[in-house]
Amino acid sequence: MESNRCLQCKGDLPESSYHFSNIVALRHGFCCFSCMLAKLGPTRAYANLATEKEEARRRL
């Protein structure tokens, strides 16, 4: 069974560590989206997420 807390920062994770937001956080050098949100703030964290979603749509 998968834990729903980050092992590094102990923050809450979405339903899966493979959730898109966590993958985006890893690509930006963070351990999870919760950690990226805490360190960058909501504006930059969600902007990173939106940018990655748009790039993923373009690749399809």
Q: Strand share of the residues?
A: under 5%
User: How many β strands by DSSP?
Assistant: 0
State the helix count. Answer: 3
Q: State the order of secondary-structure elements, H for helix, E for strand.
A: HHH
How many domain regions?
1
Write down the Rg. 12 Å
C-alpha geometry:
globular
What would you note in describing this structure?
The chain is mostly helical and 60 residues long. The protein has one domain (1-60). Helix content is 57%, strand content 0%. The protein contains three helices and no strands. It has helices at 20-27, 33-40, 42-59. Helix 1 (20-27) crosses helix 2, helix 1 (20-27) crosses helix 3 and helix 2 (33-40) crosses helix 3. The chain is globular and about 35 Å long. 22% of the residues are buried. The model has no long low-confidence stretch (mean pLDDT 82).
